Amino acid sequence: SFIKRYVHQFFSQSYRATIGVDFALKVLHWDQNTIIRLQLWDIAGQERFGNMTRVYYKEAVGAFIVFDVTRNATFDAVIKWKQDLDSKVQLPDGSPIPCILLANKCDQQKQGIVTTPEKMDEYVQENGFAGWFETSAKENINIEEAARALVNKILMNDKLVNSGDMMDNEKFAIAGGSTAGTAQSTSQAKKSTCSC
């Protein structure tokens, strides 16, 4: 539902959980010189689909991991997804791709750690997330902000990697791929060295 809200500005009460993988594309006019094409892969979070869906995020340059603040069991799976993501996807310098944790359904009664923002901040830092947001796909809370934060992190990595500080074989072009948890981001820039 996060991707449907972000890409189509649409929410449905009758949303069904993803079975396998779903895909969406969003084009952003970032600034006068930059167009970003986000490939968003919604990957089933249920364990029974884990082995099948993880292949889809091996080329990701950014990720969201989403949990439901009303169901503690979904939060318990967050660390497994993050560890799996970090073990399978790295930037050319070996560091993990930026991953933002989304505490979805923040418009409803919260359970567990998310009720204490300070503990969430600590959890996010300890586990190598690039940040976290309380979101609501239903009420359109922090959807754009979370996506913008992830794209910013991706672009910062692209500038670092494609600056003159790295050898050519260590550079990367932001192009296709996929992600863990819920969404994957790739970008394409006009007037850049990006070979997308």
Automatic annotation (TrEMBL):
It is found in: Membrane. SMART domains: RAB, RAN, RAS, RHO. This is Ras-related protein Rab. Keywords: GTP-binding, Lipoprotein, Membrane, Nucleotide-binding, Prenylation. InterPro entries: P-loop_NTPase, Rab29/Rab38/Rab32, Small_GTP-bd, Small_GTPase. One of its GO terms (biological process) is phagosome-lysosome fusion. It is a lipid-anchor. The small GTPases Rab are key regulators in vesicle trafficking. Belongs to the small GTPase superfamily. Rab family. PROSITE patterns: RAB (PS51419), RAS (PS51421).
